[in-house]
Amino acid sequence: MIQDSAASGDAFAADLLRGHTDTIVLGVLREHDSYGFEIYKHIRDATGGGYEIKEATLYASYRRLVRDGLAEAYWGDESQGGRRKYYRITDAGRAAFRQNVASWVATRTIIDSLLGSQPAPANTKGSLR
């Protein structure tokens, strides 16, 4: 579930993060192979509960990442209850993650400069003119 902290007075726009679900999942998978609910818990815990992604959104992301060759799915053993489907990042997924993070940093820099939060970037590569 995505929680909008704006209701509690915090300036948090969950809409800004929704388009980055695949990158967030790839970031988790960079650390180690994980199963679906474990990824959910990692995201929730990493944000102190401030950001939770709906289960349906996550599972759509897993399917998309596998379909696009950015992650692989495999079944774990049954040592702790039922079998779990695990996900691992592929080399293509690592490359996509790096590119997505670079794009996010460039976008954040531009937005910060437009909002007066930091000086304008010296490099205008990728100008939107």
UniProtKB/TrEMBL annotation:
Pfam families linked: PadR
The Transcription regulator PadR N-terminal domain, residue ranges: 25-98
Membrane-spanning ranges: none
Superkingdom of the source species: Bacteria
InterPro entries found in the cross-reference section: Metal_resp_DNA-bind_regulator (IPR052509), Tscrpt_reg_PadR_N (IPR005149), WH-like_DNA-bd_sf (IPR036388), WH_DNA-bd_sf (IPR036390)
PANTHER family per UniProt: PADR-FAMILY TRANSCRIPTIONAL REGULATOR, TRANSCRIPTIONAL REGULATOR RV3488
Name of the featured protein: PadR family transcriptional regulator
Organism: Agromyces lapidis
